[in-house]
Design brief:
The complex is a heterodimer. Helix content of chain A is about 75%, strand content about 0%. The radius of gyration of chain A is 22 Å and the shape is globular. Chain A starts with a helix and ends with a helix. A two-stranded antiparallel ribbon of chain A has the order 1-2. In chain A, a hairpin with a 6-residue loop joins strand 1 and strand 2. By secondary structure, chain A is an all-alpha fold. By secondary structure, chain B is mostly helical. Chain B has five helices and no strands. Chain B is flat, with a radius of gyration of 24 Å. Chain B starts with a helix and ends in a 10-residue tail after the last helix. The chains are: A mainly alpha, B mainly alpha. Chains A and B meet through helix 8, helix 9, helix 17, helix 18 and helix 19 of A and helix 1, helix 2, helix 3, helix 4 and helix 5 of B.
């Protein structure tokens, strides 16, 4: 195992690879900092580049983008009170008041230190937990894999945002899209409606590019006003000893809550940050400080959202079940670059896994260094206007969708799904469930078919095997909790409106 | 009764979509053992129709949001962006990436409000050259070439 670790470190530190990881980290901070440009969009825009690299270095570049974008989100949350990523929403509560008091540099430093420690701690959790979970999953047969996919699909409920029903519809559209074309079981053409262009189905990447990136560009045509940032220059970034000491306990809070929330599928950074923030405030002796510009508030949020990253990678790596919306996109990205996460990857490609593990820690140190530099130039990052950025994003979308198969048809698909994605956003249909549907649908279908073939059409195989039954029970619990939560929220809303 | 129109329309669209795709599976033969290629799509389309009906019903129960004014400025820009995109896709194989993309970037930047012509020209040429170099020369992706 040690040799895999050493090989992983060697790969990550090779000058050309190191530069590529650095590029991923820099890109992640920029993507995170720009309000409205999400981590998912950054990963999707980076994909066409990584497509032509080896899978190991592609994986590390994507990890760099993922982790750094979490910190990047704090830059606009602190300077503009507009979180760059949803996970940084809670950071703005104390970050913006700090910036108004002229302490933007200190707030950003606390965010960076928290992000770094959160990333390292969650990396340790990933290294310890993922192989253990994968080992357990090696006992899985088709029935268990089917039940696991069903459990994965129930995550749709928790990444659906405001409306569970609309989340379910979005997930079903994803499932339907994955079924169009030639089926994997018997090679029969299905759901093509007689349209020849649909025979080869929809490639995942152009759909992703369309739904997440092109639709975002269209939506940004609507945005009119630019928000004024509170500071043009950032000074005083170093924390003194008492300030540093004040953020140590919040960082511990963030690490514990972020990691635990991250490991639970279907939760994610936004839940973790608000939970960690509330818990810290509840336990704090100076509750009144929170919301007025408490450095502790910034540190706990940013630690928690970066602690989620490693935790969310655990179910994704070990079971192929994404932990949150961003890891759902990451999972799609990994499949596209030829990395198929799951227990088999631990058995057959340990070199890949340990390169990821070793690279993960290198990424965190890079994020720390690049992060400090980015704090100094943060106001300039935020100055990039849509007039410049959006045409560049569109060109990347075009090249990205074209380069997959060198086919103009895929560019047209990206455009069509851009419009569909925009209409979905307008209708409040969440987008991550669509991705989950597209990834998990074929998995569920193929494994159910295998399970039925093995059992000679005996459906009770799904309930006779204890792990499969357990996963199905978990799926039912997951849906029930979401339904109850949604019912309570609507009741609360009704009471508030009355 | 106030009806949330967007949910009503969306719900009906989902029901129609589900129905159309469900009908398209009727020709597929059932399987003796295991799943038939039609089984899973049927399950999904039925679920879609149920969810669509639920959304329609919900639209009758929810309060209609205040009437929003139509933003004609956005609609104009939206149509312009889509037209530019379609023309670009249509001409890409004929004119080629290197010669066509500057015009595409120029057009989209203009739609986004870039009024300074010199900056726009610089952005258009710069973006094209950098992207072309990275993909065509570094990654060796055969981007469409001039072929009229």
């Amino acid at each position: 195992m040690l040799s895999y670790w050493i090989d992983g470190i060697k790969i990550a530190l090779q000058p050309s690879n190191f530069m590529l990881i650095l590029l991923g980290v820099v890109g992640g901070i920029i993507v995170g900092a720009l309000p409205g440009v999400t981590s998912s969009m950054g990963i999707i825009l980076l994909l066409p580049f990584t497509y032509y690299l080896g899978p190991k270095i592609a994986l590390l570049m994507l990890v760099g983008m993922y982790c750094a974008s979490m910190f990047g989100g704090s830059i606009s949350a602190i300077l503009l009170r507009t979180p760059g990523t949803p996970s940084a929403a809670a950071t703005a509560l104390d970050g913006f008041p700090l910036a108004q008091q002229g302490k933007a540099g200190k707030a950003l430093s606390a965010a960076l230190i928290g992000s770094f420690i959160g990333g390292i701690a969650s990396g340790v959790c990933m290294v310890l937990l993922a192989p253990f979970l994968a080992k357990m999953a090696l006992k899985f047969g088709p029935a268990e894999y089917f039940s696991l996919a069903v459990f994965g699909l129930t995550i749709i409920a928790s990444v659906s945002g405001k409306s569970l029903l609309k989340g379910a519809i979005s997930g079903l559209i994803g499932l339907l899209l994955a079924m169009i074309g030639i089926d994997n079981i018997r090679g029969t053409e299905r759901l093509t409606l007689g349209i020849p262009q649909l025979e080869s189905g929809f490639e995942f990447l152009p759909v992703l590019i369309g739904v997440f990136a092109v639709s975002e560009v269209i939506q940004r045509l609507e945005k009119k006003q630019q928000i004024e940032q509170v500071t043009k220059n950032i000074s005083g970034i170093w924390l003194n000893w008492s300030e540093f000491r004040s953020i140590l306990i919040p960082i511990c809070f963030g690490v514990v809550i972020g990691t635990i929330i991250g490991v639970i599928p279907g939760t994610g950074g936004t839940i973790a940050t608000f939970l960690a923030y509330n818990e810290l405030r509840r336990w704090s002796k100076n509750k009144e400080k929170f919301g007025q510009g408490a450095l502790e508030g910034v540190a706990v949020c940013e630690t928690a959202n970066n602690a989620v990253t490693g935790g969310a990678m655990v179910p994704m790596l070990a079971l192929s079940i994404p932990g949150d919306a961003v890891t759902a996109v990451m999972l799609g990205a990994l499949i596209l670059i030829g990395v198929r996460p799951g227990p088999m990857m631990f058995a057959h490609n340990p070199d890949m896994i340990y390169t990821l593990f070793a690279g993960w820690f290198i990424v965190q140190f890079l994020m720390l260094i690049v992060g400090f530099a980015s704090i100094l130039i943060a106001p300039n990052i935020l100055k990039i206007s849509d007039r410049v950025l959006m045409p560049i994003v569109l060109v990347l979308c075009i090249v990205g969708s074209f380069s997959l198969r060198n086919n103009i048809h895929d560019v047209a698909v990206a455009l069509i799904f851009g419009v569909i994605g925009y209409l979905m956003r307008k209708g409040d249909f969440p987008l991550p469930p669509l991705v989950l549907g597209m990834i998990l649908g074929p998995e569920a279908e193929q494994n159910l078919n295998r399970a039925l073939l093995v059992s000679k059409n005996d459906w009770t195989i799904l309930f006779k095997r204890p792990i499969s039954l357990g996963l199905l029970v978990l799926a039912i619990i997951s849906v029930t909790i979401s339904l109850l939560g949604s019912y309570r929220a609507s009741k609360k809303k009704g009471a508030a409106n009355a | 009764m106030a009806v949330k129109k967007s949910d009503l329309v969306n719900g009906l669209l989902i029901v129609i979509l589900g129905l159309v795709f469900y009908i398209s599976t009727l020709k597929i033969k059932p399987a003796k053992l295991g799943l038939s290629p039609a089984d899973f799509p049927r399950l999904i389309t039925i679920a879609m129709m149920i969810c669509g009906v639920a959304l329609v019903l919900k639209s009758f129960l929810s309060k209609s949001s205040s009437k929003k004014e139509i933003d004609f400025g956005f609609i104009k820009k939206f149509v312009a962006l889509i037209v530019v995109f379609i023309v670009y896709v249509w001409l890409l194989n004929k004119i080629g990436f290197l010669y066509l993309t500057p015009f595409f970037v120029f057009g989209t930047a203009y739609i986004f409000g870039m009024k300074k012509i010199y900056v726009n020209i610089l952005l258009s040429i710069g973006t094209t050259v950098v992207v072309y170099y990275i993909f065509s020369r570094v990654f060796l992706v055969p981007l469409p070439d001039f072929s009229l």
